Automatic annotation (TrEMBL):
Domain DNA ligase D polymerase: 34-295
Record's protein name: Bifunctional non-homologous end joining protein LigD
Pfam families from the UniProt entry: LigD_Prim-Pol
InterPro entries attached to this UniProt entry: LigD_pol_dom (IPR014145), MtLigD_Pol-like (IPR033649), NHEJ_LigD (IPR052171)
Organism encoding this protein: Thermasporomyces composti
Residue ranges that the Swiss-Prot or TrEMBL entry lists as coiled coil: none
Length: 306
């Protein structure tokens, strides 16, 4: 490691030399969490995070001036991307400008993760599908149900709905793994055999609408925002191949450095307050040391939709 006259720190990661700058810059003013601590977090969580980013084109949300400053989503590789960073060029039908060709970054090594953290890419968002070694787009291998509470509903209400969803999935012979969003809600992940996006979307929509019919006081499946007050919206649209979901172990750009955190079903069952399932970066590192990667089965499990 070396430091130049301008205060830039040079480090070697995966045989690549990276220049890390402004490490003392506070990105989370409420807690004093610095850019150096962001880089340290992503470096230490890399072993469990990288398998969930592997071969998935990455959308980043960056806060160059910290979470109280302006943020922007970034799909294309940024200017100055090192030649050793893997990129893949594919159509992006979800663009606000219509279909366009995007050169995405794919995070397949620690050095890429550290490089992005140095760019204040706090949030990492990935699709439910992967790309092959030559850039071929595969069908989704994940089904995700996003639970989004409409105030005054909160994360506790999401846990109630997650347990109801688990029962429906169990009845269909499917196992799901829960994680918090790191914000207000949570997601359930169901690893599946590669399945067309139209099929995964239709299945998830039917699941959401079934639960909304059975529990209209608690659940809503409609996109109409005015219907969500006090209920949990089941966002089945996350399975549209054009959509992305915040990755497991990603930081969130909120007041505090909260993390989208895999949790156990026992924790979901026991949740009584929002704080019960709110985890910051240091909490997550402790959890990983004690529990390992609770989402590890997602990388090896494949189930067939009914």
């Amino acid at each position: 490691m070396g430091v130049d006259s301008g205060g830039t720190v040079r480090v070697r990661v995966d045989r690549h030399v990276l220049q890390l700058s402004n490490l003392d810059k506070v990105l989370y003013p409420r807690t004093g969490f610095t850019k150096g601590e962001v880089i340290d977090y992503y470096s230490r969580v890399a072993d469990v995070l990288l398998p969930h980013l592997e071969s998935r084109p990455l959308t980043r949300k960056r806060w160059p001036d910290g979470v109280e400053g302006e943020a922007f989503f970034e799909k294309n590789k940024p200017r100055g991307t090192p030649s050793w960073v893997r990129t893949v060029t594919i159509d992006s039908p979800g663009s606000t400008r219509g279909s366009e060709v995007v050169e995405y970054v794919v995070v397949d090594r620690l050095a890429t993760l550290v490089w992005l953290a140095n760019l204040a890419a706090l949030e990492l968002h990935v699709p439910q599908w992967r790309v092959g070694p030559r850039g071929r787009v595969h069908h989704p291998d994940l089904v995700v149900v996003d639970l989004d509470p409409g105030p005054p509903a909160d994360l506790v209400a999401c846990c109630r709905v997650a347990l109801l969803l688990r029962d429906l999935l169990d009845a269909d012979g499917l196992r799901a793994w829960p994680k918090t969003s790191g914000s207000k809600g949570m997601q359930l992940y169901v690893p599946v055999e590669e399945t067309p996006g139209e099929t995964t979307s239709a299945y998830t929509r039917e699941l959401a609408e079934r639960l909304a019919r059975d529990h209209p006081d608690l659940v809503v499946a409609s996109m109409t925002k005015s219907l969500r007050k006090g209920k949990v919206f089941l966002d089945w649209s996350q399975n549209n191949p054009a959509k992305t979901t915040v990755a497991p172990y990603s930081l969130r750009g909120l007041e505090r450095p909260t993390v989208s955190t895999p949790v156990t079903w026992e924790e979901v069952e026991a949740c009584r307050t929002v704080g019960d399932l709110t985890f910051e970066a240091t909490d997550v590192l402790d959890r990983i040391q004690a529990m390992g990667d609770l989402f590890a089965p997602l990388t090896t499990t494949r189930q067939r939709l009914p």
